[in-house]
Amino acid sequence: MKQQLEQLQVYSAGMSEAALKKKTGYTGFFTKLASNENPIGPSKKVKEAIVNALHSGLNLSEYPDSEATQLKEALANFYGIQSEQLFVGAGLDEVIMMISRAVLTPGGEILTSEGTFVQYNTHAIIEANEIVTVPMQQGRFDLDAFLPKISDKTGIIWICNPNNPTGTYVDETTLVNFLKQVPTHIPVVLDEAYFEFVDAPDFPNTLHLQKQFKNIIILRTFSKAYGLASFRVGYAIASKENVDVWNKVKLPFNVTTLSLIAAEIALEDQAALKTYVKMNNKEREKYFNSKVSEHFLPSQTNFIFVKTDDPESLNQLLLQHGIIARQMPIGVRITIGKPEDNDIVIRALESFFKA
Ligand SMILES: Cc1ncc(COP(=O)(O)O)c(C=O)c1O
User: Fold this and answer.
1) Between 3.40.640.10, 3.30.70.370, 3.50.50.60, 3.40.50.620, what CATH number should domain 44-269 receive?
2) Which residue's CA is the nearest one to ligand 1's atom 16?
3) With contact defined as beta carbons under 8 Å apart, do 305 and 297 qualify?
4) CA 18 to centroid of ligand 1, rounded, Å
5) Residues 89-136: pLDDT tens digits?
């Protein structure tokens, strides 16, 4: 075994209904709000496309298109970029792994914030890199504090924007000011898994910034707003040179044929995306208009970060109401669900904070 793996824990995913039942014997109302999934699911058109594909002689005994040609073309048209700038993976989890594998050399460093998505660190450890982190400022990335931590060993800078688990974001002015000071040979990955939920006007237009800052890598996924988490499709937008290198380490047939079809149709069905995002953002507003909103960090995503000194008790109380959320060291992250489920969550939070 690689010695550094001793530092790693097995990833623990949000509890399922079956696991909750087994653990607590609970059989009442249940909602899983632990993994920032879309509670509506894939659009009708996506489901129909999958069924039609199965009935129209799709050959499932053949390997999928290793280059994801059609999906890349569709994404390239959608964004007005070249197909060669796209790297498609089995979810962003795989994209993050592939970038780490291709870029990080043993003994190097990654630079990121405390309190962000854990996979950046997992792959740094696997690749025998040091993790250099910067504390958050009120639940936000503190990019000014990143600058003195950049060293000759820095292999990748990871910025999760908006951030999981806090829901906060870095604005365009702050990001540009930072990028101007980062040596251009260091890749800056902007993980925008929650991009589609953002409505802040000063959120960075990273596609545009990429023309000026060639070291930017943008990550987006079909798992969140498009509701395709089970299909596993995510992608990076980067320079052709970067993508060429990552293709060398990529698994030959990483994304399944049905997943490629689902992603293509989901991208086409922008009306369904808009409907869900509208619902999510309206429900987000409902949370922020509630009596307990002072306990939340601001959110540009499909989840709410609830601050508390006692995350364990809050999580337990939510579990008693059949709500599976995600306990964190300084709070609990709750995915925004269907309107009726959010009402139950808000009532539970009100009882916790005695609001
Ligand atoms: C910030 C962030 N990046 C990446 C991922 C991984 O997403 P995917 O389902 O595309 O692998 C997640 C999933 O929760 C996430 O929150």
Assistant:
1) 3.40.640.10
2) 164
3) yes
4) 23
5) 999 999 999 999 999 999 999 999 999 999 999 999 999 999 999 999
